Model the fold of this input.
Amino acid sequence: GQQLNQSPQSMFIQEGEDVSMNCTSSSIFNTWLWYKQDPGEGPVLLIALYKAGELTSNGRLTAQFGITRKDSFLNISASIPSDVGIYFCAGPHSGTYKYIFGTGTRLKVLA
Amino acid sequence: SAVISQKPSRDICQRGTSLTIQCQVDSQVTMMFWYRQQPGQSLTLIATANQGSEATYESGFVIDKFPISRPNLTFSTLTVSNMSPEDSSIYLCSVLDSYSGNTIYFGEGSWLTVV
Done:
């Protein structure tokens, strides 16, 4: 079945640094969603991508839909302590609205 | 986006008992889903809650263990039956927002611990 692998699995960074993470799939997606999950809460949608090559920003966050349609990237610029959390990518099973989720990237920011 | 409320937000349950989680949305939605997130893991889709008909379950999940109801377009319930410690997870209700690019939004989740 379809799987989404995220890299890195976890990362520690210094406050103020830029962060990059990615999500790769074994098959093609036509939509990529990026979420952040804080402890004790449900995932919150950050960015949605719908077209190969698309680059979309939300404040300090920028995400890109890979040209091959098998990957997506999320960048966070000038990280701050509240960026701590788990970031998930998600994409729909082919031909459905049932989203599968990536393995997650756990971000820890050192002040 | 729709506002999604789940109850209970957290519970400690005895082994062998069942618990029903409620999901209420502030607007009518066509598709509702239930996910499970085991400790330290990603989200796994349990089933699609269909209004007026039986839920559609994903591989590895069965109706006897996770019965789902969806009586209308704003409400759904998930029951976790005959619980064991392996059922300790966060259970998340989500809805498809077809007005904003078919994105999905989540409730706060229901944290269940089975002892």
About this structure: Residues 56 and 63 of chain A are 5 Å apart (CA to CA). Chain A touches chain B at residues 31, 33, 35, 40-45, 48, 50, 88, 90, 92, 97-104 (CB under 8 Å). The mean pLDDT of chain A is 94. The two ends of chain A are 40 Å apart (CA to CA).
